[in-house]
Amino acid sequence: RPLLGLDVGCNSGELSVALYQHLLGLQDSNSSPEPPGARKELKLLCCDIDPELIRRAQQSSPFPASISFASLDIMDSGAREPFLSSYLERFGRSSFDIGFCMSVTMWIHLNHGDRGLLEFLALLASLCTFLLVEPQPWKCYRAAARRLRRLGRADFEHFRSLRINGDMAESITRILTQECAMELVCSFGSTSWDRSLLLFKSTSAQPEG
């Protein structure tokens, strides 16, 4: 059975393709598209709220049979639930083996508040056996707010009322482990952008055959 992956906030897809290649050991960028057996090993669903970025990703994808790109507001339950259910049903599954959330948590948090962040993390935990999260640190929140002010635009609706703040990697770890039935498997330290990569595993998910 194929492994199923979910990449939330994939932008124009370059990182999604790199993740796919890394997971299958396809490090050579000159590899022929759709190498033998790839379709049976990994199916990656990549979604983003921006339809133009998704259009670009679809046009440039070297693995169209294995990587699916979709325009989706992950916080819109009316659109999300039937779409994800339909995708999973194609494989006779109810969840993904692994989810990726790279530099997305801040935008969910700023646009949907503390309650939105909690809902988002609970959703990912319910959908994925493993979850790799790259939280943006609090300094990125302040920088995003400054950029809006310099542009003369209104501040993010929830920015000044966020009670979840400070060390965001610690906060997200606490939420996932204490409230979402996940355990921290590994912290991969800091990226070149001074962000942690945190790998979690569900403590309640049962393997699907």
Summarize this entry quickly.
Its EC number is 2.1.1.-. The chain has 209 residues and is of the alpha/beta class.
How far apart, in Å, are the first and last alpha carbons?
7 Å
Q: What is the averaged pLDDT score?
A: 90
Specify the structural class: alpha/beta
Helix content bin: 40-55%
CATH architecture: 3-Layer(aba) Sandwich
Sheet of most strands: 7 strands, mixed
Percent strand: 15-25%
Query: What is the fourth-level CATH superfamily?
Result: Vaccinia Virus protein VP39
Highest-level CATH class: Alpha Beta
Order of helices and strands: EHHEHEHEHEHHEE
Radius of gyration: 17 Å
- What best-fitting shape do the alpha-carbon axes yield? globular
Give the total of domains: 1
Number of strands: 7
Structure description:
The chain has 209 residues and is of the alpha/beta class. The protein has a single domain, classed as Rossmann fold (3-Layer(aba) Sandwich). It has helices spanning 14-23, 38-41, 51-60, 77-89, 105-127, 138-150, 168-179; strands at 3-8, 42-48, 67-71, 96-102, 128-134, 182-190, 196-202. It has a 7-stranded mixed sheet, with helices on both faces. β2, α3 (51-60) and β3 form a beta-alpha-beta unit. α5 packs parallel to α7 (168-179). The longest helix is centred in the middle third of the chain and has 23 residues, at 105-127. It is globular and about 45 Å long.
